[in-house]
Amino acid sequence: MQIEQLRAFATAVDLGTLDAAARALTLTPSAMSQRLRALETSAGSVLLERSTPVRPTVAGEIVLRMARQVLLIEAEARHDLGATAETEPAVLRMVVNADSLATWFPVVLERAATWPDAVLHLTVADQAVAADHLIRGAAMAAVTSRARAASGCRSVPLGVMRYVAVARAELAASGLAGLPMVNFGPDDDLQDAYLARHGLGRPPRVTQVPSSEGFLAAVEAGLGWGMMPELQLAGAEADLRPLGADAVVDVPLFLHRWKLASERLDRLCATVVEFGNVHLAKSLATTGGRRLG
To answer: Is the pTM of this model over 0.70?
Structure first.
């Protein structure tokens, strides 16, 4: 498997079409196809579904992970050899959940702005499934709620994302039973877990808002109650009240990363751990449910 074949494969996955990848690599469509066919011959498997957009097969995900690692090591070697003028910065791919991205993660972005030799490519995904991106080769690191790391990865605790069940003051006064609810998405069971703890089911009125900032805006507007990150409540403009004395739910967060010797990946992960430990809660309250995003 030659490095230019791996570069062509990874670029095709990133850009979604062979034509776009060929243009990015200044190749003819024919040369692009030849590199991919040669890579598939070397691997002994079909690696790419020629769909729109193209997608890696199960075998392709294994090769994609290797390609990402090889290309990162190549970028670092070129930089260390003094070829910085001819070499683009290394791309660090990471998965972050929406609530972290809206609260404590921006300080990581501020630190990353000082790195001339690396750029971040972030993907937003639920903390419960974020680690799967590492297995598929789509990311090198991920903020996840899973404690145990997959094979080839290691796990570092970040702290606890603390959620509080809140609603506008006039809604909170009427009690939880039957209160309209705001939900992040179809797989967000954080609110449902809180209701179940109180022996209640879903209310008839449920508003779905798949954005951390939009979720807060919906709760502030009075569309219903919701589980809000405690870090986000500091910026709330409306008068939001907790729904009872046990309104806190804690979700532990971990950083999973590839076991790869990479100074730039080490730097990113050390920064995430540093600021996660600073901004996330340290102790567990009642843990249950998960927020998609």
So the answer is: yes
